[in-house]
Specification:
With 238 residues, the chain is of the alpha+beta class. The chain is 24% helix and 24% strand. It contains 5 helices and 8 strands. The strands form 2 sheets. Strands 3, 4, 6, 7 and 8 form a 5-stranded antiparallel beta sheet that branches. The protein has a 3-stranded antiparallel beta sheet with strand order 1-2-5. A hairpin with a 2-residue loop joins strand 6 and strand 7. The radius of gyration is 20 Å and the shape is flat. It starts with a helix and ends in a 27-residue tail after the last helix.
């Protein structure tokens, strides 16, 4: 599809894009909207994950709509291997991925295949080289899975996610995502005099109550959303 056709779809779906955005960026934006709507509707995950997903659903009952004047069907797969990581709020992120057919065949042909999983790394203040994160945790997934909502442990932090599988106890990396930053779980401590008004204290109090609704990762959150070995984070080198 030409870039102008992609922009028409983005406009019809009210997607936030810039005129300077490349064709690949537009495809990613449209693919994200398409994936979230259709995959969430199909409900491939268990009930607990579906309950958490309702917080972020764009539209549960309506599929991606395209006008009769410009019918641009989107393929379910692009036969690429990649994983995309997106921040949702201070304690939740979203990942979606695809594995190309050749890689899937290789995995299925591996008689020692032990499982597919996501590995989430905390890399705040680190120049990550694949082996030196502050800590990581693993989330087991299936070959049929394509996306996951992830409860991350810390606000105001930096994360990257890897899609991997195990064979004979050896980890084999499939894809590594972009880096994301989670926002603060509180409002800024900087309050300029320019913005001070008689209602400032009331507004700040209301915002703080809103932030209190965010729930950090804890042992009380049902799994498979987040998976820890021995209910603890795993620092590198341990």
């Amino acid at each position: 599809m030409e870039i102008n056709e992609l922009k028409k779809i983005a406009e019809m779906e009210n997607l936030d894009y810039s005129e300077e955005d490349s064709r690949d960026i537009l495809i990613d934006l449209i693919w994200e909207a398409y994936t979230e709507r259709l995959e969430e509707k199909r409900g491939q995950d268990n009930y607990t994950v579906q309950v958490e997903e309702t917080k972020y659903t764009i539209t549960q009952d309506v599929e991606l709509e395209v006008s009769d004047e410009a019918d641009y069907p989107l393929p379910a797969r692009y036969n690429q291997t990649r994983i995309i990581f997106i921040t949702r709020d201070p304690f939740w992120a979203y990942a979606y991925w695809e594995i190309d057919e050749n890689t899937i065949k290789t995995i299925k042909a591996d008689q020692d295949f032990e499982g597919l999983y996501l590995r989430v790394h905390d890399i705040k203040l680190i120049n990550f080289d694949g082996t030196n994160s502050n800590f990581y945790f693993d989330i087991p997934v299936l070959l049929s899975d394509r996306k996951w909502y992830i409860n991350v442990p810390h606000a105001n932090s930096v994360y990257i996610i890897e899609l991997s599988y195990s064979s004979r106890g050896e980890r084999k990396l499939i894809a590594r995502s972009n880096v994301i930053s989670t926002p603060r779980e509180d409002i800024s401590s900087v309050i300029d005099e320019e913005w001070i008004s008689p209602n400032t204290d009331k507004i700040i109090d209301m915002i703080r109550k809103d932030f209190s609704s965010f729930h950090p990762a804890s042992a009380g959150i049902p799994q498979r959303i987040i998976s820890f070995i021995s209910s603890s984070y795993i620092p590198y080198g341990s």
